[in-house]
Every structure is written in structure tokens, then in C-alpha cells.
Amino acid sequence: MNAVLPTDASLVAQSVAGHRPAFAQIVSRYQALVCSVAYSATGSLSQSEDLAQETFLSAWQRIGQLGNPQSFLPWLRQVARNRAIDHVRAQRYRETP
């Protein structure tokens, strides 16, 4: 028997309702993608893992603001990009004499 995987939209709807296991499925599904986005900006595995954790925390906190659950993946990618960009900017600021 083939198990039917829930759609992103259904996982988002459950997450908005506070169902943490649904969001855990989202994290499991997109952890590698989010880490890749962060790694492409930082070049550091450890920093990319930290940024992925920050990305998912931010997504959990703001998932209720997502207007269209069908656009979850592009929204999550943008959250990851913004986190990575903010990190790179902060790092440059700290390194500036």
C-alpha cells in the first residue's frame, strides 16, 4: 500500500491551528532545501544549520501571516534567503573596522 503524503497546504493549515507534528513534517520535508539556501550564502555548514533553525523558527512564528497556503514553498525559500542575507550583512558589519 502506498501512503498518501499530506500536501504542503494541508500541513500549513494544521500548523496555523497549532498542530506541531504537522510543522515537524514541514521541517523534515524542507530541512535540506533550507540548509542549501543558507549554505549558498554563507559557505559554512555550521552557519547554514543555524540559519535553517532560525528560518524554521521564524516560519513557525509567522505561518499565520501566510495568505495562500499553496504558496508555502516560495514563501519559505524567501524567509530562508532573508535570514541568510541578514546574517551576511551582520557579519560584514562586524568585520568592518
Detail the topology: elements first, then pairings.
Layout: H1 8-16, H2 20-42, H3 45-62, H4 72-95
Helix pairs in contact: 1-2, 2-3, 2-4, 3-4
Low-confidence stretches: none
The best one-word shape is elongated
Give the number of helices: 4
Give the proportion of residues in helices. over 70%
Amino- and carboxy-terminal Cα gap: 62 Å
Give the ordered list of helices and strands. Answer: HHHH
Radius of gyration: 15 Å
Q: Give the biggest beta sheet.
A: none
**Overall average pLDDT:** 92
Describe the structure.
Helix content is 76%, strand content 0%. The termini are far apart. The mean pLDDT is 92. The protein is an all-alpha fold and 97 residues long. It has 4 helices and no strands. The relative contact order is 0.16. The radius of gyration is 15 Å and the shape is elongated.
List the keywords:
single chain; 97 residues; mainly alpha; 4 helices; 0% strand; elongated
Quick take:
This protein has 97 residues and is mostly helical.
